[in-house]
Amino acid sequence: MIDLKRVEEFDSLRKNENGLFVLVGSLSCLPCQALKVRIEQWLIKHPDVKGIYISRDWFLELTAQNNIFSVPTVVFYRQGKEQFRQSGYFSLDHILEKAETILQM
């Protein structure tokens, strides 16, 4: 999972990747850091999916433009289209299963 450095990087990945897992977090969000580790482990098993971490602390405007107002938030894109998103308290196992189902379609 890469850390977002520029807004253009996010736009390019979202439009050009077959699968993109986005985690939006913040420096003060401890659950966000734990989720990042688990998603990175999942990404190792799914090399066809890219992962990106967006710090809401540094990209507040970008997250607001994408209707992300709380952390943690995960968004899964497939071929440039948002497939699902989840914010706040959620089961990561359920999210990862959902992503695998979408990838098999």
Topology:
Blueprint lengths: L1 E2 L3 H10 L2 E7 L4 H15 L4 E7 L4 H6 L7 E6 L2 E7 L4 H13 L1
Parallel strand pairs: 1-3, 2-3
Antiparallel strand pairs: 2-4, 4-5
H/E element order: EHEHEHEEH
What distance lies between the first and last C-alpha atoms, to the nearest angstrom?
Answer: 23 Å
Strand arrangement, major sheet: 1-3-2-4-5
| Structural class determined from secondary elements | alpha/beta
Overall number of strands: 5
What's the helical proportion of residues? 40-55%
Q: DSSP strand (E) fraction?
A: 25-35%
Which key phrases capture this entry?
4 helices; 105 residues; alpha/beta; 42% helix; five-stranded mixed β-sheet; globular; single chain
Structure description:
With about 100 residues, this protein is of the alpha/beta class. About 40% of the residues lie in helices and about 30% in strands. The protein contains 4 helices and 5 strands. It has a 5-stranded mixed sheet with strand order 1-3-2-4-5, with helices on both faces. It is globular.
Compact summary:
The chain is α/β, with parallel strands linked by helices and 105 residues long. It has helices at 7-16, 30-44, 60-65, 92-104; strands at residues 2-3, 19-25, 49-55, 73-78, 81-87.
